[in-house]
Amino acid sequence: MFKKILIANRGEIALRVIRTCKEMGISTVAVYSTADKNSLHVRFADEAVCIGPPKSSDSYLSIPRIMAAVEITNADAIHPGYGFLAENADFAEVCKEYGVKFIGPTPHMISMMGDKITAKETMIKAGVPVVPGSGGLVQDAAHARKICKDIGYPVIMKATAGGGGKGMRVVWHEKEIEDLYDKARKEAKASFGNDGIYIEKFIEQPRHIEFQIVGDQHGHVVHLSERECSIQRRHQKLFEESPSPFMDESLRNKMGKAAIKAGKAIDYEGVGTIEFLVDKNRNFYFMEMNTRIQVEHPVTEEVIDHDLIKEQIKVAAGIPISGKNYYPNNHAMECRINAEDPYNNFMPSPGTITSFHSPKGHGVRVDTHVYAGYTIPPYYDSLIAKLICKAPTREDCILKMQRALDEFIVEGIKTTIPFHKKLMQDPQFRKGDFNTGFLDHFKLED
Ligand code: MV4
Questions:
Q1: Structural domains of the chain, with CATH
Q2: Is residue 147 classed exposed, middle or buried when 0-12, 13-18 and 19+ CB atoms within 10 A define those classes?
Q3: Quick one: which atom of ligand 1 is closest to the CA of 165?
Q4: What is the dihedral of CA 327, 328, 329, 331, to 10 degrees?
Q5: pLDDT at 163
Q6: Which of 89, 198, 212, 434 registers the highest number of CB atoms within 10 A of its CB?
C-alpha cells in the first residue's frame, strides 16, 4: 500500500481524498496556490506545498510544479481528484516516468477515451450500443452534407476532442450545414486546439444516465449501478440521484452489462463512468466515458454503502476487487450548492461567507471545504458544497432533502439553495418525469 499520497487538487475533493487517506493510515500532501493558503485541505493534510500563484495554469495545472512538490515530499502516489489534471494523459505519463503511481487509469486509456471518435470506435467493436453517426472525422462541408442526408435530420455535430457540451451544434435543416459546420470547427479549434468534428443522429429530449464502474489490475470490471444526471443547465449538472426514477430491473441489467463491456473493451483500471443517452423508448446509447472520480460520486457511495476513493486507492495499489456488481439499497440525491445567483442567470458570486450552518441529522451528508469567514476566490469553479441525502424511497429522500435545504444557512454570497428548494417542489420532478431539456422551461420566480 502507498505510504504517502499527494493530492493534486483543491476544494471539497481534496478534503474528501484526505479523509479516506487518513482512515487508511496513508500520509497526505496538499498542494495549494497562494489564493488557497487558508483552505482546509492545507490545514488537514500532513504536509502542504505552495505551488504557485492563483492562476490555475501556474499552479493546479502546472505539471512541473506538481512534480517538484512530489520530489520534495517523497510522495509515492498522486490522486488527481476531478477537473484540473485528472484526465490529462501527459500528466499520467510523466507520473509513470517519474515512478510515482497516478491513481487512475493508464495514459493510453485516458487518451483513447479522451478522443471521442476513438472512444466510439472502441465501443462499436466491443458491441456496446452507440448513437448512429459518421463513424469518423468529417472531411469537409460536402462530406458533412452526405452524412447528414444518410443519417436523417436532426443531427448533432460534436468535437472529437470535446465532451461536456462544448463545440456542439444541432442541425435541423440541410441549409444550415455550411454555417454550423464552420462554427463547430472554429469553436473546437479555439477550445481544444483540434478542429476534428464528427456527426451523430440527434436524440431528442434524452435522459442522461451514467453507470459507475470499477476495474482492477487483474481483469475484473464491475458496475455499481447508475446515476441520473438529467437536471443540467448549459451542460453543468446541478442535481443527481440514484437509482434513476426511469430505471427498471431489465434496463439496469442491459445497461449494466453494456457498461461492463465498455470497461472490459479497454481493460479498464480504476473508477470510471460510462455516460449513456436514453430515449423515451428506453433505447440507450454510449456517449462518453469519464476516466476519473466524479463530483457526484457520493450518490453512489450512499446507495451502495462503499467508499469509492478507497476503492480507487486499493485498485491503484494492485488489490483485486470482489468481482460482483452492486445494486442500490436505498435512494440518494445530491444538490450542488454553487456560489452563483440562480435569480441572475447563475452568475458567479465569489466573496466572503459571513455565516454558515450546514444541515445535519440521519441520512444527511455535506461535503464541503467552506466555513464561516472563508473567502471564495474568483479563480476556480463555484462549487462550495454538496448536500447529499439518503432515505429508503425517493419520496422520503425528497422530504429529507427539503428539510435539509431549509436548515442550510449560507450568508454573504448568493447560492443555488433557492433553486434546489424550488426543484424539490416541482410536480414533474416529483413524478420523476423529466429529461435533459427540463431546465430549459424551469422558472425560479412566480
Ligand atoms: C447528444 C444529445 C442528443 N443526441 N448527442 C451534451 C453534452 C455532451 N456530453 C453530449 N450532449 C448531448 N449529446 C446526441 N446524439 C444531447 C446532448 C445534450 C445533453 C446530454 C446530456 C445531458 C444534458 C444535455 C443537454 C443538452 C444536450
A1: 4-103 (3.40.50.20), 132-201 (3.30.1490.20), 207-441 (3.30.470.20)
A2: buried
A3: 7
A4: 180
A5: 80
A6: 212
Catalytic residues: 292
Whole-structure pTM value: 0.97
Burial of 344 (0-12, 13-18, 19+ CB in 10 A): exposed
Amino acid letter, residue 247: M
Fill in the amino acid letter for 304: I
Among 200, 230, 436, 439, which residue has the most ligand 1 atoms within 8 Å of its CB, making it the best to mutate? 436
How far, CA to CA in Å, does 331 sit from each of 41, 251, 274, 277, 407? Answer: 30, 18, 20, 22, 21
Query: Is 32:6 a contact under the CB 8 Å cutoff?
Result: no
- Ligand 1 pocket mutation, candidates 240, 287, 440, criterion most atoms within 8 A of CB: 287
Q: Which atom of ligand 1 is nearest to the CA of 275?
A: 9
Tell me how far CA of residue 392 lies from CA of 367, 397, 431, in angstroms: 21, 7, 17
Q: What's the CA-to-centroid distance between 202 and ligand 1, angstroms?
A: 8
